[in-house]
Every structure is written in C-alpha cells, then in structure tokens.
Amino acid sequence: MEGKIKRFREMIKEKKTIDSMLALLQWDLETQAPKGGYKLLSEMIGELSLRSYNLTTSEEFLEILTELKKQKNIDEITKREIELLEEEIEKIKVIPSEEYKLYSELTAKAQGIWEMAREKNDFESFAPILEQIFNFNKKFIEYRGVKDDIYSEILNDYEKGMNVKKLDKFFEELKKEIVPLLKDIKENKRDFQKKIKFQVSEFEQRLFSEEVLKYIGFDLERGVLSESAHPFTLTVNKDDVRLTTRYLEELPFSSVFSTIHEGGHGMYEQGVAEELKDTILSDGASMGIHESQSRFYENVIGRSKEFWCGVLGKSKFKYDKLSELSLEEIYKGINEVSPSLIRVEADELTYSLHVMVRYEIEKGILSGEYLIKDLPKIWNDKMYEYLGVTPKTDSEGVLQDVHWSCGLIGYFPSYALGNVYSLQILNAMKKDINIEGALERGELKIIREWLKEKIHRYGKLKTPKEIMLSVTGEELNPVYYIEYLKNKYKNIYN
Amino acid sequence: MEGKIKRFREMIKEKKTIDSMLALLQWDLETQAPKGGYKLLSEMIGELSLRSYNLTTSEEFLEILTELKKQKNIDEITKREIELLEEEIEKIKVIPSEEYKLYSELTAKAQGIWEMAREKNDFESFAPILEQIFNFNKKFIEYRGVKDDIYSEILNDYEKGMNVKKLDKFFEELKKEIVPLLKDIKENKRDFQKKIKFQVSEFEQRLFSEEVLKYIGFDLERGVLSESAHPFTLTVNKDDVRLTTRYLEELPFSSVFSTIHEGGHGMYEQGVAEELKDTILSDGASMGIHESQSRFYENVIGRSKEFWCGVLGKSKFKYDKLSELSLEEIYKGINEVSPSLIRVEADELTYSLHVMVRYEIEKGILSGEYLIKDLPKIWNDKMYEYLGVTPKTDSEGVLQDVHWSCGLIGYFPSYALGNVYSLQILNAMKKDINIEGALERGELKIIREWLKEKIHRYGKLKTPKEIMLSVTGEELNPVYYIEYLKNKYKNIYN
Prior knowledge:
2 copies of one chain form a homodimer.
Chain A: H1 2-31, H2 38-56, H3 59-70, H4 76-92, H5 97-120, H6 123-142, H7 150-158, H8 164-187, H9 202-216, E1 223-227, E2 233-237, E3 240-245, H10 252-270, H11 287-301, H12 305-314, H13 327-334, H14 351-367, H15 375-387, H16 413-429, H17 435-440, H18 444-454, H19 464-472, H20 479-492
Parallel strand pairs in A: 1-3
Antiparallel strand pairs in A: 2-3
Helix pairs in contact in A: 1-2, 1-3, 2-5, 5-6, 6-7, 8-14, 8-20, 9-10, 10-11, 11-16, 14-15, 14-16, 16-20
C-alpha cells in the first residue's frame, strides 16, 4: 500500500508541475508575448493540456485510485483528493482526447482573436470561434449522457449544487429588490464621481496599486502585479501568485479597485495551508467562494468609508489629489450608482444586473433559444431593459469580457454568488472583530488572518457548502446582501 | 530512409519545443517571477534541460544520426544539423546526466542569488555558487579527456578555432595600440557628457527605446522589449524574439544604447531564413558573429553622427531635450572617452579593456592561479592597472555582470571578437552601400537587408569562418577595428 501511495504522490506532483507550467505559459501569453509568439504558445498549451489529461486518465492512475479508495485508514487529505479526482475523471474520461486537445488549442488561440476583435470592434471576427467554444462545452456535457438542461450541469461544475432553477429564483428575487431601489436612485441622480475623476499617470497608478496590495496584506515577495486587457489572477503555486490590473489614465480609481479585487483572489491562494501545497487541494474551494473573497475586499472593504480613512492616514504612497478631497467626497465618489456599460467598471448596486445579462445569454445559447450571430443585439436589448443603457459599440458590449474566449462558460454567476457569500461572511466576521475600527487603524492583517483561519487555509479540503456552514452557520442566503445594499445606498442617497 | 528522416525531424521538433519552453521559463525568471517563484522555476528548468539532454543522447537518436550520416544524397540543411549535433553530443555524452541536471538547476538558482548579492553588495553570498559553477565547467571539459589548457577548449566551444594563444596575441596587440591612445585622450580630458545627462522618466525612456528599435528595423510584432537588471536577448523562436534593457533616470542614453545593442542581436534572430525555423540551425553562427551584429548596431551605427542626424529628423518620439542640442554635442556626448567601472556603460574605446579584465580572470581561475575568494581584489587591481579606476563596491566591480551566474564562462571574449568582426563587416558593406547617406536619410532598412542577405538568413548553416570569408574575404583581422578607433577618437579629441 505504501508503494501505491508513493506512486500516487509522484503522479500528482507531475500533474502539478504540468499545471504550473501551463499557468506560466498562459501568463506569458496574456501579459508579454508578441503576436508572432501566439502560435507556438498555443501549440505548447495544447500539448501540455493533453499531457495533463493523459496523466489523470491513464490506466495506471485509475488503478491506483481504485486501490486507494478501498483503503480504510487513509489520511484526510488524500481521501479528499481521491474524491475530487474521481469527480474530475468522470467528467473528463468521456471526452475523446483528441477533442480535448483541440479545445485547449482553440481557447488558447481564441484569446488573441478576442483581443483583436475587441480592439477593432469586430464581433464577426470573433463569432465563429465563440460558436465553436460554446459547441465544445455543450458537447462535453452531452458526452456525460446529459441531454436536457445542459446549463445546470455546467453551473454545477463551477459550484456544486447550483442549477438553473436555483439561480432563476435568486436573480428573480434580486431583480425584485434592486430594480425599484435603482429606480429611486436614478430619480435622485447625483454626480458624485466628478470629484474622483482626474488625470493620474500609469506610472503613479502602478505605484499606488502596489501600495494598496501590500496594505491589504497581499505578499509581493510571493506574487506580482502586471497588466492585461482584462484583469485576472493566476496561480503558479502558493508562493507565486500573479495578478493583473489595467490602468485608465482618466479614471484613477478603476485600477485600484481591479487591483483590490484580484488581491482578494490572490490572498486566498497565498493563504492555503503549506501541507496542501503539493496536493490538488491547493486552490480555492469553488469559483463562488473565490469570488466571495475578491468581492469582499473590493466592495465590503474597499468601498467602505473606514477603509479610505485608514488608507489616507497610513499608506506611504497615494495620489496627490486625494489630500484635497474629504473622506465623504471619496466615499460618495467611489459609490455613485450610475448604470454603466462595462461590468468591471460597474458600481456595487448594479453589478449583479450585469451578471444577469450574461447568465440569461448563456442559458439562451445553450438551450438553443439564441444564436451566436444575434448576440450583439440580444446583449444590447438586455442592457437597455435592465440597466437603461445601450452600448454604442460591441467592444463596450458583448465583446467586453475575456471569459468566453477562455472557455469559461458558466463562470459569471459565480460573481453574483460571491457577492451574496461575502455579506454572509461579513456578518459572521463582525461577531469576532471590530471591523470598522480595524479598517480605520489600517490593521487589515486581522481581517486577512481571520479569513485565512476560517477559509483560505482549507483550500479545496472542504466543499463550498461545508465552508459556508462552518463559517456562517448557513448555506447560500441572499438576505444579508440585499439588506446591505438597501441600507448602504439609501444612506448615500438619503 | 524516409522513415528515418521523418523520425529525425520529429525528434528535432520535440527538442525545439523543449528549448522554446526553456527560453520562456528563463524569460519569466528574469523579467517577472516573484522571489517565491524562483524555486519551482529552477526545478522546472532543471527537469526540462534533462529532458532535452536525454533526447539528444538517447540510443534511438544516436542510431538515427549514425544511419543518416552514411547517406550520400542528404540535403544540405540536414547534413549541417547532423554535423553540429555530433559535435554537441560528443561534448555532452561524457557528462553524467545527473550532473548535467544539477548544473542546470544550479545556474537557474544562481541568478537569483547573484541579483541579491549585487543588490546588497555582498560578494561572499555569491562566492560559493560561483565556485561551483566554475568547477562544473572545468569538470565538464575534463570529462572530454582534456587535462591542460581547459580555457582554450572552452573558448573553442564559443568560437570554433579560438584558443588562449590567439586571444593572448590579440589582446596584446589591442593593449599596445589602445593604451597609448587612451593616455593621450586622458591628458586631453573633456566633459562632453554633461550635455547629454538629464532627467528622463522611465516611461519616456521606454517609449524612445521602442521607437528606436522600430527605427533600426526590429519587428515588434515578432518580439518584445522588457526590463531586467542586465540587458539580454532571448529567442523563443524567430517569430518571438525577446529583448530587455534597463532604465537609469539620470542617464537617458544608457537605455537607448542597451536597446540598440540587443536590437542587433534580435534582428539577427528574426532574420534567419524561414526554412531553418524548425531546425537546430535557427540561431546565430557563433557568439562572436552574434556580438558583431549587436556591436555593429550599437557602435558603428548607433554612435555615428549620421545615425543621430537621421533619428532627429525622422523618428516620431524623442526626448524633448534633444532639440536643444546640436548634432555635434550629441555626437561628442555619446562618444566621450571616460574609463568607467561598468562594462555595459563603457565607451567604445575602453570597452575591450573591460573584456580583457574578465578574460584574464577566467583564464586565471581555470588554470588554478586565482582563487574565487580573491576575485574582488584581483578585479579591482586589474581595473586600476588597465583603466585607471577602482570600484568602490563589488556591485560596481566583480558582481556587475550576469554572465557567470548563467554559467557563461568564456563568453566575454566574444564581445571583443564581435567588435573586430563588426569593422570588417562595415568595410565590406561600404563597397555596396552608401552607409552615411542611408543613415542620414533614416533608411536603415537597406542596412538590415544587406546583413540579412549576407549573414542573418544563414543562421548556423555556415560556420563563423565561412561567413567572414564570404562576406569580407578574410578571417579575423583586427586591423580595421584598430584603425577605426584611432581615426574616430583622434578626430573627436583632435
């Protein structure tokens, strides 16, 4: 038996190394590679993905898994790894390996094409590859024997237990509460934002972003901050966690909030227990829990008055202009409700409506109700219906997000789940910590330590449900989120 | 036979893919990786180097080589590949694979240690690993059965036909001619440089560096420019060639000349014929020829009056301050002779003396005459003897170059060879092109095309000697270089 466990660990180590290498190639592709390099990088990514696939579907590996599963006295970590691997293998083994490779190459290539299409506002050049990506995703689910409700199966992959029925209900509730609130606010429209719109050079924004990252507790010795068209977090391993942001010279707070958001993801990855490092449990429990961390830092922390009170007093570098503004002006500026076209620039209140647009579109394509070629129009219609705004170009409409080009169909709802979880978590944290005081004094370490202790260190050792139960005593419950939004925005717009 | 050739091409393709991946990991390590990532990256580099090693020393590969070698009617490219592979294998197969892997891991790790040592001016923390690197290099040569004159064998690896005897003679000659000239100039010392020392932000320097790169003909669609402690060029493949430079805010020309130097290397790599892309002939003929291209662009082109006449007239972005300077002021500023501590900041005249210091030290360590622990003193003594300057810290002395930490023992003389070749090449080019006119009119394309036609496109298909003979009609001949230096500097310092 010991021999089996040893071989199991070796094979896992090999898989982890391939995955780290894939992460590095992906990182390079999105942050530095010249156009001429896309082809080779895509090929390499395809080959490595195939190797990773072959490894976990090899007969030797499957045999070892079966053997280990029979053992009674196996340690908790290995047990959980086997459980997750079996789930993964069940999903993967039904996919012909050649198709898996084609799909990996396709998504690697798609990002270059998406970037170009977005730059040139040319949806048509992206449509064929987008269609292929959706088709692959559909086909992969069908290989499991699933015929109806493909989307529920996809949602369940991202967040175990989630399905269309639950999410339909959740968005319905959100719509019912937020739309009237948004209507009230629109009637009472104010230009809080103009105070916080000023020119700051990319260079200074970078300095401030790094300063804020350190301030919230992200370890820059074990991570970097770079730039990309769409901010993301990518983990090589827990000692090398990479974030990107993007700098808009006229909107100096945009990069700060992107950075804080990715910093929330990054601290989760950095905070995983050392003993999980060489296991497949070394990252976040689910996309929803991951987003709860990023949205917690971005909104609950980052858009609070107390946080900026601390930043102004404690951080070493900040924009010169900030000293001319009152705390109230900053607070209202970063919390103005103003339905926007771009999701990543959206205010906290309307954010989930952006998610809803994407949710409904994914659902419609996968059910066959919508056609890819009609997406620009469908997108624009929904934006008008829910947010009252219409994109002038597809670059600020259907082409704005990187997700679909990466194959991340079904990811968007995680952002909304993350919002809901983050407020449940805040509610629990309040029982242990005087959060407002900690923020005002710039003591963000207490908050990160609490999250690390309760959530981060477990990685995938616990399920999302187990985490939410142990931390908050409840499963998904939107009530805190909705109450928080109502209170916060009624107060700001009195 | 066709089957053999097909299998040979497959294995070469695999080797090329591993090498490209190694290049990407190396690039990441030196430009972006956080400290926490060094360990895993070094391990990965070690493993991939081992795979590359195992591939070209596998029985299957060696058998195919032997078979192919017997064939008469094999194409010219494959023939040359076999020739080079056999040379490489002869050298490599005597090294035990475990040692090869250890060495690769060592040099990967050494760069982080060197960088830290340089930053903290702490030679002692670097000395043990430097000693190991020299020992490995010595041992690897000894495995070939070479006992005496290890250094000649190393020099010959970089530039076929080179040895200590030839280089001793060459440096002797250079010393004889340059030292008196330098003495004259020192007596007539002038501060030309103060005119071109002004503050320019890193951001603007980056813009100008990119502009100059495009101006000389480097293709930024098939390459990138980034930053690192020590500028270098790294090729993923001919469509993805990566350069770095470094920005010193008070010396705005420093980054420009580093960029032009690396651009010369980069254009060589980008200019290799398409048909060599998937072969092992796809990079430069030798280090000496490679340096001839970088030094040609940096000095012969970049430090000429005509080049700056063209730049001032034609390039879209330049430092504001440049318009306040006369062409003569710029020309004298960038050509002031002022013995410096740092090789990469050295003027054209004293540059080869910096190389001589390193040459003599490498020779001394390998012969056992010098000990690693004494290097700081030996370095400083030689700097004083040849250049009349003494480093105040090891960071600006023995710790200044990245080369040794990468395992590049024996590389430095290539810079001096490159200088000599570059003037031989200029002399040949003059017969075909009105170079001064082309530079003044900003038509640098003609120059790159000439070099591409005569040198770049051949990659390693020709030997350095064949290239020099076909382009200039002569082998190494320092007379043009020495004459050029004498004329140029007598003129500047009349």
